[in-house]
Amino acid sequence: RNTVNVPVNGWAAIRLVADNPGAWVMHCHLDVHITWGLAMVFVVSNGPSSLLSIESPPLDLPQC
């Protein structure tokens, strides 16, 4: 599940519906590959409704 086997020197095309806002990492199942740059991040924007949007931070959240 959620795995795509790719042959040597091959590639795969992935179609997905991105409806959960936030930053989502996609990477190989071998952790060492992340340090080799074989990972990516999907940045999903807020949707048209509050159910498909990230909540705003609280007003009393300290600034960095």
From TrEMBL:
One term under GO cellular component: extracellular region
Localization (cell): Secreted
Keyword hit for Transmembrane helix: no
Gene3D superfamilies per record: Cupredoxins - blue copper proteins (2.60.40.420)
Alphabetically ordered keywords of this record: Copper, Metal-binding, Oxidoreductase, Repeat, Secreted
Domain Plastocyanin-like: 1-47
InterPro entries documented for this protein: Cu-oxidase_C, Cu-oxidase_fam, Cu_oxidase_CS, Cu_oxidase_Cu_BS, Cupredoxin
GO MF term list: copper ion binding; oxidoreductase activity
Record-stated family: Belongs to the multicopper oxidase family.
Protein name as annotated: Laccase 4
The species this protein was found in: Pinus pinaster
